[in-house]
Amino acid sequence: MNLTETATLAADNITLAHRKFTVAKNLSVTLPPGKVTAIVGPNGCGKSTLLNGLARIHAPDTGTVLLDGKDIHVLPSKEVARKLALLPQDNTAPEGLTVADLVRFGRQPHQGWMKQWSRKDQQAFDHAVTAADVIELQDRALDTLSGGQRQRAWIAMAVAQETPLLLLDEPTSALDLGHQIEVFELIRQLAAQGKTVAMVVHDLASACRYADHMVAMKAGKVIMEGPPGEIVSPELVHTLYGVHCDLLEDPATGSPLLVNMRRERSDHARCQ
Amino acid sequence: MVPNRAVASRASFPSRLLTTWLVAGFLLSLVVMASLLYGAGPVSPGDAFAALLGNGPDNAHFVVSELRGPRTMIGLVTGLALGLAGALLQSMTRNPLAEPGLLGVSAGSGFAVALAILFGASNATLTTFVAQLGALAGCALVIAATRVQGLGNDPVRLILAGATLSGLLLALTSMLMLMDQRAADEIRFWITGSIAGKPLTLLSSTLPAIAVGLLIIAMVARPLAAMALGEKAAVGLGHHPGRIRFLITLSVALLVGSATALAGPLIFVGLVVPFIARAFAGPDIRKTLWLCLPIGPAVVLGADVLSRLIAAPSELPLGVVTALIGAPVLLAIVRAGRMPSL
């Protein structure tokens, strides 16, 4: 399915605070439409806070988040939910909830008090379970699935929302390598169908591999932004994570590959 | 290819729900019949049945229409309110043990009414209103407690906090009883929990509040179901968790306050009813609420019929019977090794 509808999402000079403690200051980020944006940075740099700010979970103290040019906190939440789907990190599901039950929740923004399950809801549901490849798992309870399958089911819920924008907070954080790739490839597929995706990724290597656009954060600030191939450098990696590394080009995809990572520069000299 | 499976999986469950609902409704109608035929007044089941059909002796007619009839209706409404309130509280606090009686919502309501009785209140409308205010205060305390870091995630600790609150309120109520002998008798009778001999005016004074409570449930059932996916996921679906919590709190207070005004602070009903409903309905709160509609009244009325039969010709207070039934259920849930996560 190609999404005919598009939407733009941008943070305009926002400052986000937890209680009185400022986590992120004066951030301005625009998500490139139809692309996958990865927000990266060390633990505690404010990357999840930025994503939550973009998803209107966390209201900024100053500045505005603009959805199609309008303040996201002024727009009705339900209207926002028809343009922007969110996959939070700390999601939970009651015991025994099936994949089909979960995916159906994705249609709530399109339903009203009197508007029950419609034909259009069913079409969106069918599309979502197909896209996320969970058709065979529909009747299984979430707690009986593998981590990767469960995450695909959650993504199917977000797909059923039929939004042009999709935000994911560390979608692969608890998954092993095989399941990580399973989820990242699904995310790439969704972008290929026209969705604008933003995700927090703690693994820089995956971000280099799967993102079109990268937002590098440190200590609550965006220090660099652009395609991974252009902005990722040994200097950036050192600034972000305090480690030294060398860069190669992935022969298959052309994306940057981090190699020879180490804490001390002296090792570097020895290698040469 | 795809759609058939999807449609099939949708169609199967509601029909199962309907079957369960019909079975529960049938059981409820049996309990209603039993409530009209047995106990409460010296009339045999046979005479009572004749009276229902419009025949039978005059005294049977009187007992059925003036004693057992109102008692049955009050039992139905009390069970409805407590069952729904329990299901709402459990869903909102994500705690299978959350129950108005155990968490101090009923005790708050009871204390408020005891206070009103001490100050000479006897008007049914006033009692209802005071009971609802007390329930609201109790409910607000519970919600505040679940917001304390860590407490909300631990079912047993929340119950301990609720038990502490209940204990305190009970002690305060006992203190009130020492202050005035006339009030003490009235409070003591009322606080045990009973639906015997309550006037129908009391019922009519609670109906508006119950109607509002039900309306709120109809409005927030869908967002409440989404809250089970986590607060952020609910926002992502376009809901307002703060608003939902407020409305649920209000609804629980209205329902529990009404039930307490009708029957006194009954414990365990709000635990047992959703527990049974969930066993058939599965994880979706909307289905659980539907099933609570027939199950709640059936449980309270069933317990009330038992309360008339166990020690016949005298009666046990309803509150004693619900406690006798509810305590083992609570133990069974706690002993089940791991608590079901809601």
UniProtKB/TrEMBL annotation, chain A:
- The organism's superkingdom is given as Bacteria
- Principal localization reads membrane
Lipid bilayer topology: Peripheral membrane protein
Its GO biological process annotations read: iron ion transport
Looking at the keywords, is Transport present?
yes
**Among the entry's GO cellular component annotations, what is one?**
plasma membrane
Listed CDD domains: ABC_Iron-Siderophores_B12_Hemin
Residues forming the ABC transporter domain are 9-244
Can you say where in the cell this protein is located?
Answer: Cell membrane
Recorded family membership: Belongs to the ABC transporter superfamily.
Kindly provide the name given to this protein in its UniProt entry: Iron complex transport system ATP-binding protein
Automatic annotation (TrEMBL), chain B:
Return the PANTHER family for the record.
FE(3+) DICITRATE TRANSPORT SYSTEM PERMEASE PROTEIN FECC-RELATED, FERRIC ENTEROBACTIN TRANSPORT SYSTEM PERMEASE PROTEIN
Looking up SUPFAM superfamilies in the UniProt record yields: ABC transporter involved in vitamin B12 uptake, BtuC (SSF81345)
Gene Ontology CC terms: plasma membrane
Lineage here is:
Bacteria, Pseudomonadati, Pseudomonadota, Gammaproteobacteria, Pseudomonadales
Bilayer topology term:
Multi-pass membrane protein
Source organism per entry reads Marinobacter persicus
Q: To which protein family does this belong?
A: Belongs to the binding-protein-dependent transport system permease family. FecCD subfamily.
Annotated transmembrane regions: 20-40, 101-119, 126-146, 158-179, 200-224, 244-277, 289-310, 316-334
Which protein are we looking at? Iron complex transport system permease protein
